TrEMBL record:
The keyword Transmembrane helix applies. It is found in: Membrane; Nucleus. Residues 232-273, 497-561 are annotated as: Disordered. Residues 700-974 form the Xylanolytic transcriptional activator regulatory domain. It is a multi-pass membrane protein. It comes from Hortaea werneckii EXF-2000. The chain crosses the membrane at residues 53-77, 97-114, 121-138, 150-172, 179-201, 207-226, 306-328, 348-371, 392-411, 417-444, 456-475. It comes from the Eukaryota. This is Xylanolytic transcriptional activator regulatory domain-containing protein. GO terms for biological process: DNA-templated transcription; methylation. Residues 236-245, 252-261, 497-507 have a biased composition (Basic and acidic residues). Its main location: membrane. GO terms for cellular component: chromatin; membrane; nucleus.
Amino acid sequence: MSSDLAVPGTVRLIDAAGVLHAAHGSGQKEIVLVPQPTDNPNDPLRWSKARKVTAITIAMVWCFFIGAMISGLSPAYNLIEEDTGISVADLSTGNGLMYLFMGWGAVVTQRIALDYGRRVTLVASAILVTAMTIWTAFVGSKGEFFANRVLLGTFTSPQETLMELIVGDLYFTHERGSYLSLYAWSLFAGAFLSPVAAGYVADELGWRWIQYILTIIGVGLTLPMGSRKKSRICRSPHDIEERGPQKGNVYKSRETPEKESPPSIQAAPFPEAETSRTFAERLKLWGCRHPAQPSSFKAIILPFKLLSFPAVFVSGLLVGGILSWYNVLGGSLALVLGNPPYNFSADSVGLTYLASLVGVSIGCLISGWPSDKLVVFLARRNGGVMEPEQRLWICSLALLIHPAGCLLYGVGASYHVHWFAVVFGQGLICVTLPMGSTLAYTYVMDSYGEMAGDGIVSTILVRNTMGFAFGYAVVRMIDALTLRYALAGHEDLSAAQRESLDSDPRPSSEQVSIRNVVADTGTVQDPSFLARVPDPHHRAQPPVQHATPETSNLDSHDGVLPHEHDHLDLSTQLLDDSFDFDTCLRDFTGFLDGVGLPIEWSPFQEDLHTALTGPEENLQQGVSTRAGTPFGSWLPSAPTGNGLANVVYEKATHRIAPEKRPFQVTEEQRSMLKDSIRCFSHLLDPSFRLPSRHALTRYITSFFDGFHPHMPFIHLPTWQILDHPTDLVFGIAAVGAQYCFEKKVSEQLFYAGKALLMNSLRARHDKLSSSTRPSTALAQSRIDGNVADCHGKNTPTIEKVQALIVLMAFATWEPQDTLVQESFVLQGILAHVAREVGLTEESSIPSQPPTLHNGDRHSAHDREWRQWAADESTRRTKLIAFTFLHTHSIAYNVYPVLRSNEVNLRLPCSTKEWNAPDAALWHGFRCETPKPQLLFQEALSLLLRNRDDASPLEPIPTPLGNYVLLHGLLQRIHILRDLSVPIISKTAALPIEEIKKLEHGLRSWTSGWQQAPESSLDPNNENGPIPFTSSALLALAYVRIHLHLGPYRSLESRDPEVIARSLSQCPEVSRSDDISTALLYAVHMLGIPVRLGVDRVARSQAFFWSVRHSIASLDCAVLLSKWLIRVSTTVGQVALSESEERILHWVRCIVEEAYATVDFDTPWTDANDVHAPRSLSLGVLQIWTHFFLSNRQWPFINIIGQGLKKYSDMLR
């Protein structure tokens, strides 16, 4: 070529006059073929169209399924976390490692491909990727997963760099854009389509089957890759030099062009003529390396030297931004759509990838064929000369499309816009993904054709290093900045990257000089090239600092009161505008191990430590840090099964997969329910109408979301509505309707369910009392085996106990006194039926697994799981019946109708076993369980006999097991109170020996709570709210040891006046160090709603904040108020002790915070006078009153607030 075309990448593409001695296209005669085909019959540029299509199709299919193999697990991250304990953040980090090694592994694999052939590299990659895919199904730890991802990334690296070379081998410059866009489509389509199918596979078969299916596909890919023919010929430097003069003479004019037309394809001579290879020779996996090629050791460093070329580096930044956005979508999609307000299931999240596919397809159409047409058009306008920069005009479209997609996806989701807008934004973002990658790769190949293989590797190095960084940081970035600001900041970076290439697409002198660096360096085949490439510029890199999550320190218990000089001014901290709310919540999360529950705390110790210090000093104790959780900044208004899709605990935590919940009620199921009650119409209210299927779906969903997490006795993975009697279904629907604020329907369902249940129990009683014939009424009522409500078994089924629990729970917390009386009737029946079904392991009647429908058949493994689920559900039902009966005794001060010495069942299993969605996962969790749980009586006895305050229980009970044991301890306090005090006096204290034994038992229980892997004080804990509720009952236990408030509440009256009068008559509280522990818990119970926001919690947290919390809070409020009054009347005679000063100071800080933030109608005390203990007493009562009156879920809690308000009026 002439000197003006000596810059690499600048080529004469259009020969309109037909004067060049070069091969031209057969379709468009004016287009010069670049690169020029040789006369070698094996040159892939000379292959027929059909042979080229076959070769490129095999390569693209391989690329498509490799993309599927590395992306198929995306919608199943939550299931993997439940199964293996590997957190979503760690899974995202593993993917980042995979992308990192996809880039760095290409340094080796691309060199193998360039030296020894494309096909051997692709075949080896297919085999090794398949092996890594099947290994993924068996990973069990974070380290193993990381190792798998590192190897998988290395072995899939040819997908990143080799496809571009294959396109360059087969097609000319003016055709590459179209086929590179096809490559980009196969790359992204495999990545986006596989999650769609994988979501359904995970739901139906479990997440491991995703890997099994992909392994089968991988095996099927290996054979066609082995049969793919070579697409590369080996060119020696000597060959190129001989053709050089001819290339330099392409502008030679012809004297008589009209007499001599150029050939359609004029091949450059190839000095060592080759004959066509046989079919067997074409299939060889070796024999492509040319002796003149440089050594692999020297050539392997070439991609690193090419990073000094700005065009290569900037192209890497562009495709790096593309990969980072792909990681943002993959890391945030489940977080955005799987949580409130969208609550998409795994398969629904997978379906949203169809929008990504549509976007990618549009982007490929824009960046492929149109870019080829564009460079031809611009080359004509440029005198027939094509510049690589001419393709970059297409990037201008991305500057408009990408920000719009970001606004819809990120900012729209943060404002909870309709899900379609979020998914549409996702599609717009994906439009720009292939545009950036296709144009960047084509730019490098057009600019540095001789070094395209190594230039692509350099680009991928930059790209995948950025991808690793974003894959590692995306979840943490969203957690720290929120989705809105994280995506906005990322878009600013991406815009800067795009503008670096798109600001001036014209080939300026600077851009020409960027590519001209290669002009004098020879070709990649010349061994001396390596020595002539300029060294990259050395830039000092700042050290990378990785933020590490706070870890819990369960072995450190510094929870003792501080000295005066160590004291942190909480009032300043709480009232300062810059106060760290997240820090406050982390302090709350670490309560049991920090402020609230110092095991070795003693008011008698001289060196009182940090029990009441600020949050910062207690953060490291017992905190379960969760990456990606919204708990640090907001609390959702309604719970869902994957309310928190992307949660990470220091301990292995598991949550139930909401997509496995069979809550949808069909019209057919409703019809069967309606048929099942037709024969009982005489028992039901004439106005009763069965709710619609939509209403039933709503009620049942609300029950399992709101009520059932507090009493998990139904096995959700195997639960189906038709498997259970109608009285239980109606009871569930009644409670669910209450959670939906549909009071009228809830009462109708309650009375209907109760009528059916009582009829069933009467029919059984009639049959037992009849000695001559079976009950005819029973025979008439048995209409359907699936939903038949009346059956003639001599022993009541466990489902009758379950129905009694939910019906009694509904009646217990309703405001009408008539329903309260119903609860007392159901209380006695529940205790009687529970004894009949057996309360010991030996006496328990074996449970039957649920009846199967629609011809279901299950393997022996599955039947074992279902039998275990039925047995465990039976055990949990009995234990929860015991705890709820005792809760009834606590609320209404009635003697326990079911005592702890009657119950000797094994404690419940772990949450991960209980929530395992299929038999395979359950079996895996069972294998991890070293030994069965202790019997209830054995564990309770060990707690009461223990004297060193460490947990004597082995194995450590699960959260539900700890909850049951705590009720056993509370019941002992209740019974001791009733038996120890004189009949005429209810103020006597418990014996000192009993107090010591109970406090030792409570400390031992607390130690076990801390050691339980699934315990957390987070109300949104994936394992349910039971650990959180247990903390409230623990506070109640300490309060009940020192203040016998039971007889002085009269909650069963449902009359605020009666409640207030009863509270005014309760005994006084003495000032002593013995009561300090109870006061600590009472103060912390007050601090929780104040720090979280009193109105916020009261109005939106009914699902997590159980009624039992309010019952415990009432006792804590009265104890703290009476102690403050006692201090105000005796402080003149007895000075405050150091522990009393600390507790008083903390109360003052909390009350000041509440008065500064809560909208009280009329403050009960002057804010300037809150330092006075009596004023603090009124402030404490006002906070709790406001909290109870603001509750929107259970009117019973409002009645407690009204009674507390009237009690406060009496004090004022």
